[in-house]
Here is the input.
Amino acid sequence: MISQDAFTLPPEQACDLSIVTSPHAASDLVTLFLSGDVMTGRGIDQALPHPGDPSLFEFYVQSAQDYVALAESKHGPFQLPLDYAYIWGDALAELDRIAPDVRIINLETSVTTCDDHCVQKGIHYRMHPSNVPCLTAAGIDCCVLANNHVLDWGIRGLEETLDTLRGAGIATAGAGRDLREAMAPAVLEVPAKGRVLVFALGVTSSGIPLDWRAGEQQPGVNVVGRLSQRTVRALADQVHAVKQKGDIVVASIHWGPNWGYLVPREQRRFAHRLIDEAGVDLVHGHSSHHPKGIEVYGNRLILYGCGDLLNDYEGISGFEDFRDDLALMYFPSMDPRDGRLAGLAMSAFQIRRFRLNRASKEDSEWLAERLGREGAALGTRVERGPDGTLLLRWG
Here is the structure.
């Protein structure tokens, strides 16, 4: 279980949420596991038991096997094939320890054997459907698909992705066979506590082509060109139509570029409006390859950029200052009676040899410092707990 420190609140909020100081009350909270981008395609797919066609259409690389070679040149050879649980490494023990009620990731790859690559794009991710056990190995409940890689291999690739995940018992949000399905929430039951509703949205600022947008009879992504009040109203209508007492509403948004710590003013304004006007309890932002600053607004959590959790980028140089080899698992705990944030614990890992390895003390301290630096203007700071867990403080 998360240490009691994970539920410590700022003094001015302790009276409002004194419930969380009681062990019994803490057991009534809903704890989520959230992550940023999980990319199990390309090199990782080639290292798993059922590698797909390695053909790529990148400027420098024409085979996904080259990404395995790059990782091996950086950290030594693999013993292939890797088993499905291997990529999660030390994260599996952390999931067992914290035992979140719901597990949600942004799956940034198509799960398909389709060869219809999107000619508009230079980078294409896909994983063979037979490798989907690498997701069930971590007990993933929901894959957000409103991102800039789910249609890398065309409509048939998207449809196979949806079918494969559904067959594996994994819910999806943010893409579908038509606009209605793409906009519909994933509804995740939490026995004896309520439900978690996951609405997913992509923004063209993350690199999603606008013509990937789903239509009335057209498969695609729930994507918008800008963060408008009209989008807030549309999401508010959807939330109000399905939200019941005890439901926690997550708005999962793929937005912004891969690099840089800036949180644009329009993102903050949009996130605040989702909370104030649309009944959203948590904003789950992703697209950045590294973690960004965190905000708590109206006692609701806003993650502006979760960073990558899994990828095949080892051996690729150019952005070392951002330490994109470091990854975070986010474990927010929330009161289902009103959606308030009770605490946020984060576990730090390093991606090495296509595996999540527990981060060193120095690396987790670096993450805590960086999150504190970026969160200062947002009213948050991060402390490293005695067990190495990073704990959010606000107020």
